[in-house]
Task: inverse folding
């Protein structure tokens, strides 16, 4: 019984011991020994060397150093014993030819649109191959107009503008970053009639207000600019001109004008040095308190005052996108693929984003290769993926996933993603059937700074944060979970990195694992200053968390590869579904109440009476009353799911205790059932207006972009007040959950058999 | 039945009709007619003329124009038919002789400490008799030391500093205004070992962040400074050298060193222009997010970096303080005094604070005088008071109240206060037995901007704010009240103006009534720019709310003067007590839970694990577990109070319906019982460490200064974790409530008799 990993928890945490989930007690000890061996092959010096080399030159899609990095990665994987290759896609990849922004009145001002070199940052002076700050997949255009400040440019901000009687029709809007995904800012601006969009980084969010600016500290300097994609990725990610299919070299591309995810108005990112004169020149009402940033000005909403002229011309061309794909073939179940990916392309030097995660993945591959050289072989196949083109729209992962969809539907067991990785706490999100598994992994990895397990440290953080701040929403749910359970609460995945095609399009069980939270990434995010020099001062100077990530994901990959039974716990999933179901019920109830209240206030003219008559105030619209929705199908499916999940988990425990005596055929059938579970949560018709997104439990929000919406069909329809659609998705989600449960029942049956056999 | 004032409410508000509370239906119509007559004598032009004249020169205590304003007020009152006189007190009143602040390192900087003239503001160039920005009753001193930024300088801020391992011992602190009363900042700094204190106005709170600065807009310009008293008024207000007794010309004064409310360290107010170089020079940890203001710098906590040198020398001398007291003798009950006051002294020109309220009070006195000249006479005596010396410590009102304490204990029925008055919403607070009465008054005054009653407008504001923001605490309680009741929720009074000696020291039923909330006062508060020119642009340009205040308070005074039965409703009071009692129960429960949670987190070393190891972090102290407190006496007294209040209100209604047939003796007895009600809520031993504060239901918080603490003996003892003191005050408050109830039972008996007589 050496197979217990003690969870080093104080009396705060319910005492708990984890087994090595999926391994019989006889085999668990060997697995733990293997992991110790694995750890010996991890070397922080490797990560440092690779990071410095790979971030030495601009490495966006199409940059020479991007290709060099792909080849470097390829060669290393091969040298480590992997069967590696480069897969090339030809993606529509606009780059700026001309960018110009000036204020034409009341005073003349030409924006700098340039990030100067900083002597303390060696690569900031490397201009060869570097692109200027820009937004990928905005429209080309040459527009002039009055400026309107729209705060974060999110739906509530347009409601606020409407209260002030302000329209952005025919205007150019300026929004600050934050509050929602950047691509929504120009999209919503366009939908409200704006002809152009400027997005700037307010010093309140990542500049001097948050810390000393680079190079004294890590925060965003006045000329720093956040680049980024603005493609309408909540509709579909990947190459906008090849929706739903791979941009293989011979693929047919839609014309730009037909690509739904390319925006219709020009949009440009700027620094706060460039933004300040524009904002200072604005007239119109004083912006409400929650619209004010940290610039030393009075924020006005406009219009009036500033007039601006904005020009963007891009080179729209097909560009090669290089994915490096490496296989370590499974000895027993070679057609079961455990996939692992991190992107490799940056906006400029990309030391933080993405190379800090990429070098950890390389360390895993090196260590696994070393173990294989000493005789170990994974039972299931490992597939390591170095993605290109993530920054502009998850290009490399999406095009690869779309290209190999059919093969993946047969072979993929799971996908694990990471991206930027740095000092701090384990961030874990994904399919909830893996929550206990991830908790176990986290209990077995030592936090480099404190010496306790990364699980214990994360749990301390969740509980202390909640105690300090009084948690709300997800944080509150997490704290409640941590107070009552020994493990960690897995987050739900929206979008923002390469897991999206696997989880939400293909329905593959997915995890995102990375460390962070004690760093200063925000100050250089997507700027020229995202550099090796910045990372080793303000990120993970010892690369200790790079090693921790390699330990974490490496353990996960090896346990998944060799598990007797795939390590899934289904009550974790049914609990998550129960919570999401409860949330959508409450959402409808809260909307019903607030809608009724709004009507009462309108009846009483209360908004007008409460408003300052010397200022313009337009009362909110009156919404139709919110009916009671028929949630029965969801409620019953959730109920049934729970009972099947309980039975299945019990059968799993019994089977493991009995040594999991499975025939080869049973194991194949069991693995197939488990691998297909996540797919049963998809629906081929997808979500309204975005059929590419097929997962009925997790999706990025149409109006949040990165942020997740759980039970998205139901939740977003309620938010849109589209009651019949909401009720339709109650049925669809219920059916998905029923399919999931049917599989659970079959899994339980096999496990019961495995438990009774000996 | 013409005596109904319809409450002009939409379907949002429960339909309600108010009678003229305290008047039989036969007499109510005449009273309403009298009020119409009264309104005719109110003229906005008067208010404007008086305000411009009285704010033309500096008018602080001791300034020639202060005396001139007293004489001007006296002459007008006399001319309007009042029996008026000036009562002079000799108060210890320090004024600055020398003020100096410099940063000696890392760079040299000398603070300007001066508010320059602004051409658009005529009085800002008047320097004759003006005092520079300073804090009243700080210590003299000449100190040098390292600077530490302490955010608002409130108790939680020192806890945060402790977490960072920062002590202010031997240091000079700089705090921003806000978060609690200004006098607490140097007091707490001293208690934590600081040797000097600087307080500045951050632009986030009243400067450019809140609106365009004066003169373009109304917000605080970069050189504007908030003056103010820092006397330790939560211990006792008034002249620090005559605690508890009047500073009559022959009074004996304590030496400065023995005056408990004079501070022990020098303290100086500065502008944000002067603060910015000091804050920018600070080293030490980056300040937490909620410590950051709107200056374009990274806020650090210090120490290290800035060293400063601070000098203050004052002229400590006795100065005359002139109260104008005017009587309009009652025709039937001359020894029942209805008092009304507003202070007259400003920090410099004082157009907003206090003269905007003072001129409304003058308008009332003029109109009442005019009615008297046409034959009406109040049945009870009206006493109008123009207080001096409020700004430095409620000097005029406190010394007068202390001097006349004995007479007031026999004669005072009620005191109504106002202070700054401007455009917006009715702000009403005070003794809850007057809540229905004030609601009625508010239903009868028309809002100048919207045409509905000021009650309806206020209710709309309460409900809309709660709907918009999601109300918390008092706002939530107010919204709940407004949704369920036709009237307005009266606030509880802490301190901050001249009502304090009457309510909290003498136990006299008290109201504070004034308009505001749609203005830009904050930007010039206690600065040289608090001027007529600013007020007529950013305050109440038409003086319409000055007239509204005169209507509001005038109605209240006249109804109280002539009521058949004093218009009190006791269930309003018992409901308030019930709420406060519920709050202190919940406070103890929440502390019990958070203390236990804190212990669990400490046991698990969770604070250290959650903290960034590269930064200093000191875990919070472990507090002893919170026991269950014996609230029985309070619970039972509250229960009994409610039943007596219900019975008394019912008897009141019956008596009024029956024509309130009272003999003269019964009326005198009834009025005496009602007038003494509030006094029964006092306890002569007062609150811990501050016996001057005798009210057991309402007090300014020892650690909030202006902000109220209800059931203060209990609540503050719980907050201090002084369980035996808390339980002691449970008994004391219970006894007070029992005394109150005994009076209610006697009142009910008389009213029952009055109801059955005819």
Result:
């Amino acid at each position: 019984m050496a197979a217990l990993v003690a969870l080093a928890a104080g009396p705060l945490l319910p005492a708990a011991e984890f087994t090595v989930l999926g391994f019989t007690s006889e085999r668990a000890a060997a697995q733990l020994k293997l992991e110790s061996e694995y750890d010996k092959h991890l070397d922080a010096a490797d990560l440092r060397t690779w990071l410095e080399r790979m971030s030495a030159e601009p490495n966006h899609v199409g940059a020479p150093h991007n290709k060099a990095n792909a080849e470097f990665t390829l060669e290393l994987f091969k040298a480590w014993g992997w069967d590696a290759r480069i897969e090339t896609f030809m993606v529509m990849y606009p780059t700026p030819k001309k960018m110009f922004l000036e204020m034409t009145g009341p005073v003349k001002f030409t924006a700098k649109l340039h990030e100067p070199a900083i002597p303390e940052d060696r690569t900031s002076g490397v201009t060869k191959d570097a692109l200027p700050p820009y937004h990928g997949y905005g429209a080309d255009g040459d527009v002039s107009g009055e400026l309107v400040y729209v705060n974060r440019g999110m739906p509530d901000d347009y409601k606020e503008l409407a209260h002030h009687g302000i329209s952005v029709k025919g205007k150019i809007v300026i929004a600050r970053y934050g509050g929602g995904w950047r691509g929504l800012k120009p999209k919503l601006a366009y939908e409200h009639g704006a002809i152009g969009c400027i997005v700037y980084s307010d010093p309140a969010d990542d500049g001097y207000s948050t810390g000393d600016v680079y190079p004294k500290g890590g925060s965003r300097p006045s000329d720093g600019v956040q680049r980024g994609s603005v493609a309408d990725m909540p509709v579909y990610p990947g190459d906008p001109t090849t929706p739903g299919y791979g941009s293989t070299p011979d693929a047919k591309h839609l014309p730009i004008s037909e690509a739904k995810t390319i925006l219709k108005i020009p949009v440009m990112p700027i620094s706060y040095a460039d933004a300040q004169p524009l904002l200072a020149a604005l007239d119109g009402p004083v912006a409400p308190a929650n619209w004010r940033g940290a610039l030393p000005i009075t924020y006005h909403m406009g219009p009036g005052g500033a007039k601006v002229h904005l020009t963007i011309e891009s080179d729209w061309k097909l560009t090669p996108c290089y994915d490096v794909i490496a296989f370590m073939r499974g000895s027993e179940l070679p057609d079961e693929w455990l996939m692992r990916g991190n992107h490799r392309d940056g906006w400029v030097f990309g030391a933080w984003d993405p190379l800090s995660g990429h070098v950890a993945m390389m360390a895993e591959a090196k260590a696994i290769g070393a173990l294989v050289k000493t005789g170990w072989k994974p039972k299931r196949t490992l597939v390591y993926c170095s993605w290109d083109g993530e920054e502009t729209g998850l290009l490399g992962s999406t095009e690869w996933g779309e290209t190999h969809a059919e093969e993946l539907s047969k072979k993929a067991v799971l996908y694990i993603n990471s991206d930027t990785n740095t000092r701090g706490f384990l961030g874990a999100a994904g399919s909830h059937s893996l929550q206990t598994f991830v908790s176990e992994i986290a209990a077995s990895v030592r936090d480099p700074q404190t010496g306790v397990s990364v699980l214990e440290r994360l749990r301390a953080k969740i509980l202390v944060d909640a105690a300090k701040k009084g948690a709300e929403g997800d944080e509150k749910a997490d704290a409640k979970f941590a107070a009552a359970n020994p493990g960690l609460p897995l987050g739900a995945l929206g979008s923002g990195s390469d897991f999206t095609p696997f989880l939400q399009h293909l329905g593959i069980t997915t995890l995102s694992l990375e460390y962070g939270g004690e760093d200063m990434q925000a100050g250089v995010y997507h700027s020229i200053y995202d550099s090796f020099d910045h990372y080793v001062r303000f990120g993970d100077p010892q690369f200790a968390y790079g090693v921790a990530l390699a330990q974490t994901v490496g353990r996960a990959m090896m346990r998944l590869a060799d598990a007797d039974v795939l390590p899934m716990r289904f009550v974790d999933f049914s609990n998550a579904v129960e919570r999401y179901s409860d949330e959508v019920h409450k959402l409808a109830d809260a909307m019903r109440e607030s809608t009724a209240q709004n009507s009462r206030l309108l009846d009483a003219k209360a908004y007008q009476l409460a408003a300052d008559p010397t200022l313009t105030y337009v009362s909110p619209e009156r919404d139709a009353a919110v009916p009671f929705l028929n949630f029965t199908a969801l409620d019953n499916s959730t109920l049934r799911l729970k009972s099947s999940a309980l039975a299945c988990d019990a059968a799993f425990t019994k089977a493991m205790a009995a040594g999991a005596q499975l025939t080869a055929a049973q194991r194949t059938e069991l693995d197939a059932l488990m691998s297909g579970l996540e797919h049963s949560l998809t629906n081929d018709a997808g979500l309204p207006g975005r059929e590419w997104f097929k997962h009925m439990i997790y999706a990025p929000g149409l109006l949040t972009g990165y942020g997740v919406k759980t039970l998205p069909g139901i939740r977003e329809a309620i938010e849109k007040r589209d009651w019949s659609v909401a009720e339709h998705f109650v049925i669809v989600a219920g059916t998905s959950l029923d399919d999931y449960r049917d599989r659970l029942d079959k899994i339980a049956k096999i496990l019961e058999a495995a438990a009774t056999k000996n």
